[in-house]
Amino acid sequence: MALYVQSLDSHKLQQLRSIVHGQEESLPVSRVRIVLLSAEGKSVPEISRIVNLHPINVRKWIHRFRKHGVDGLRSGKSPGRPRLFSGDQRQRIIAIAKTDPRTLGLPYPRWSLQRLRHYLMEQGIVRRISVETIRQILQSGGIVLTAP
What we know:
The protein has 148 residues and is an all-alpha fold. It is built from seven helices and no strands. It has helices at residues 10-20, 29-39, 44-51, 55-68, 87-97, 113-122, 131-140.
């Protein structure tokens, strides 16, 4: 069965065209083009070839436009994988990295990623953590550890 968007009134058509030409909103242009091509009577396989997307994705965006209008072309926030470390843990890791290890009773003047990892697990701040995750957390806080 062929799938098309319903005919577009002149206001909606103008709104979509201005998005494609970069004059309005920030929506992925390919989604807007899908709707415009569908409104022109192009089939899903034709649209798929033109915008270089799989027909399943073309159908998805046509359905979303039919159900929600232009708002349906926006991406919702994907849940993604939950963070392994809470905001509090991340802040503590950053705070500890800014602290001189000697003030914590440790024998070295600077942190390394390995030393920080060992300290965090030893103190029970985290159960397990990789050196790469520590590096990313510190980087998000504007900290780069230099080699000791």
